[in-house]
Amino acid sequence: MSRTLKVPGIAYGGDYNPEQWPEEVWAEDVRLMREAGVNMVSVNIFAWALLEPSEGTYDFSRLDRILALLHENGIAADLATPTAAPPAWFFRAHPEALPVDKDGRTLSYGSRQTFCPSSPAYREAALRIARVLGERYADHPAVVMWHVHNEYGCHNGECYCDTSAAAFRVWLRKKYGDDLAALNDAWGTTFWSQWYYDWDEIIPPRATGAVPNPTHQLDWRRFCSDELLSLLKAEREVLLEAAPDTPATTNFMVMYNFDKLDYWRWAPELDVVSNDHYLQSTDPESEIDIALSGDLVRSLAGGAPWLLMEHSTGAVNWQPVNRAKTAGELRRNALAHVARGADGIAYFQWRAAKAGAEQWHSAMLPHAGTDSQIWRDVVALGADLGSLAEVRGSRGVAEVAVVWDWNAWWALELPSQPSAEVRFQGLIRTWYEPLWRSGVAVDFVRPDADLSAYKLVLAPSLYLVDEAGKANLTDFASGGGVLAVGFHSGAVDENCHIRLGGYPGAFREALGVRTDELFPLLPGDAVELSDGGTATLWSERVALAGAEAVTSYTSGPLTGTPAVTRHTYGSGTTWYVATLPDPTTLASLLSRIREEAGVEPVRTTPEGVEAVLRRGPDADYLFLINHGEEDADVEVAPRAVELLTGEKIEDGVPARVAAGGVAVVREPR
Ligand code: GAL
Question: Closest ligand 1 atom to the C-alpha of 278?
Answer without folding.
Answer: 12
